[in-house]
Amino acid sequence: MSEDKGARLSPLQQIRQFIQNEQVILSSLAVIIGAAAGLAAMAFRHFIDLVQMFFYGFQGEKVSVGISGLPWWQIVLVPVIGGGIVGLFIRYFLPDGKPQGVPHVIEATALKGGRMSLKIGVRAAIASAFSIGVGASVGREGPVVHLGASIGAWLSKRLHLGYSLFRTLLGCGVAAAIATSFNAPIAGVFFALEVVVGHYALSAFAPIVIASVVGTIISRIYYGDFPAFILPKAMSLSSFWEFPAFAILGIISALAAIAFMWSVIFAEDTFKKLNIPFWCKPMIGGLALGVMALVFPQVLGVGYEATDAALSELYPLWLLLALIVVKTIATAVSLGSGFSGGVFSPSIFLGAMVGGAYGIVATSIFPELSSGTGAYTVIGMGAVAGAVLGAPVSTILMIFELTNDYALTIAVMIATSLSSVITQQVHGRSFFMWQLERRGVEIRGGREASLMRSITISHMVHCEVSTVDTTADLQHVREEIRKTRLGQIFVIDEEERLKGSITFIELADGLDLQEEKGVALTALDIARTKAVQLEEDSNIEQALQAHGASGEVYIPVIDEEGILKGVLHEHDVALAYKKAMEQARAEERGDM
């Protein structure tokens, strides 16, 4: 029958059916979001340049060269003044007076059904761009991820899409933002899937790929087809005997990643203890940053200039070791004091310095087996960043795309995997998850919980219930409770507001008490007035908790004014929970 029906469709009907297909619509929206997120990422970088030009008189990533001709007082004062402006902006224009970043995207995806505010996303991007422009030692990738996700969430909200599509389009914004920033479409796709969406089903994979490709096209049209980091020479593995050296580098990178994360948290705790207004704290951080920049100007901004220098083997061992320490402190102070920004660029910076320093030592010991200091620098970049972000797959792909080097892929995989495993075992979580836990946000099981929270109980309420007035005598109560199949009646007042419930147990106790005291009792006198109840806009997660805590089979449901609307049966809640879990599993398999 289905084949005959398909054969009878006219060409126009087939075209209409194709256009109305969910995946076609989703792919079309992915193009729009990819273009919007890509343009937003470019605008973000331009705003950084404008701020940098205003305060320092130059623009671009070569900060060390740019500030070399500036007076010392300007180098010190710009982060201080900029810190005050950033602090005031965050205090009055961002939720809770706190910066926004990748953790908020993860939280929105896992617990809020992908809901994010575009207004907050733009404001957070402004705060981050201003922070980087005045020299804060933070990354620009986290802010563009947040901005891209906000764009995807905004469009999804305007179109009133469901939870699954909401999350997919949010991932489209993330992928396009990453792809535009790094000219790395593959890494953008896998970062969005690994960190944000949480699965690799085709239903989400195809739209995210489209959005990432669109973002890459926009980046290449404007910036040209160049990787973010250009290797000065071709690299290749000298010997398979180097693999133990790569493994050792992975261990060292894990230690560097853990030390970096602990330093940021320590700085945050230290600044929290300062009994001064929040907006003043970035000024203190800016002062410390400016003083460090007088000796080590490489710590200012995203640090790509220093990363390129390490890849070109331009830094001696002492400087590489010094920059590991100073950059860790600078980033910890910047983020801990309240500047807005990400951690990917600092992680890449630290990985380059760790790998470069390790490469110099390893090459001096076994020069005939070494692939060169630059190779170890690349490997260190992936190992440290992968451990900090908790995203080894996308980080490996990102390093590959940033360097366009096939030969080192296996080495990067070894070091990054080992570094990520050690960090997970020792530290227990990525930097983003640690930030969420410190805010009291629990993500484990978050996507299932978010799905349950998106399903309300209003359609499961049984409206046929027996009720009695508060003044009803016990004889009338007995007659009504015998009629109901629920074994329970509800007491309401003149305005039909719920006042309590009565089962056979309360009725029997009430009859005994009435006979004992010889006083006529009413329905309200014997009713349970503190029984568990739910509002009609409650979700199935709340319903499960209510049934579990009370042990009740039926729970009364009321509206916002307390008027009884019906009852909820635990069987219906259990069935809705089962369907929600099946939906989540089907989505991950790509059956949606």
Automatic annotation (TrEMBL):
The chain crosses the membrane at residues 24-48, 72-94, 120-138, 165-193, 200-223, 243-266, 278-297, 317-336, 348-366, 378-399, 406-423. Residues 460-518, 527-587 form the CBS domain. The keyword Membrane applies. It is a multi-pass membrane protein. It is found in: Membrane. This is Chloride channel protein. It comes from the Bacteria. SUPFAM superfamilies: CBS-domain pair, Clc chloride channel. CDD domains: CBS_pair_SF, Voltage_gated_ClC. Keywords: CBS domain, Chloride, Chloride channel, Ion channel, Ion transport, Membrane, Transmembrane, Transmembrane helix, Transport. GO terms for molecular function: chloride channel activity. PROSITE patterns: CBS. One of its GO terms (cellular component) is chloride channel complex. Its main location: membrane.
